[in-house]
Amino acid sequence: MIKLVxxxxxxxxxxxxxxxxxxxxxDVVRQLTEHGIVFAGASGRQFLSMKKLFNPVWESLxxxxxxxxxxxxxxxxxxxxxxxxxxxxxxxxxxxxLPGCDIMLCGVDxxxxxxxxxxxxWLRDSYKFNVEVLGDFETHLRDDIVKMSIYQKDHAEETVNxxxxxxxxxxxxxxxxxxxxMDIVEPDADKGSSVRDLQNLLGITKExxxxxxxxxxDIGMLEAAKExxxxxxxxxxxxxxxxxVAPPLSQNGETQVLKELLRSLES
Length: 267
What we know:
- There is one protein chain.
- The chain has helices spanning 24-34, 47-53, 85-95, 118-125, 137-140, 156-168, 191-202, 219-223, 236-241, 253-266; strands at residues 4-8, 38-42, 62-65, 70-72, 77-80, 102-106, 111-113, 131-133, 147-151, 173-176, 181-185, 209-213, 227-231, 244-246.
- The protein is α/β, with parallel strands linked by helices.
- The protein has an eight-stranded mixed sheet.
- Strand 3 (62-65) and strand 4 (70-72) form a beta hairpin.
- The longest helix is centred in the C-terminal third of the chain and has 14 residues, at 253-266.
């Protein structure tokens, strides 16, 4: 029997960088909770953005935020992976050499940019991030950072993988989080390890877990769940890693699968 449902957000539940979630999902989450099934959001987003997205039901959820760097519920943080400051500054200096890219740093409660750029306004207005402009990171940054994201509008993965990823991949996890984002986190932080931490916290097994995703940063999470679903609009690598393929986001594929789960519980 399924006891835990874990879902990616952007590209799986909402179009990337929006808050356009299927209104039926809130009722689905309520019904899952009534059946004793835990629902967890797993995203590159920060907690505040996910809280706003799930506003009607947010207090009943668990959250895997910042691409697996933080595991928490509405009140408590259970795990947190902080990037060591000297290495963070080296990462920032290298990222600034990448053509046409911008940088976001994520603390526990706030994200940071250096200037009022296209990325800043998108984070603030579309993702609904709590985000601040600091100026030069090396001069003004004081917060602990759990994730660094590199943004480029059209070719983020190609640009970052040219030389940045080969240089740093033995020290950090670097993964595509959408066509415009590459996320860098501590080597022991990802969605998969956070799902396993949540399973241990709740006493739930892999066989009792269902997960949904669409991008490379979701593969570890899908591998931690027996009932793993790639959304129909997912990348091929994700479909290959998943046990099932759900209908695409445009058809609210995850909602369809979860409603079928609920029907099976009520029959």
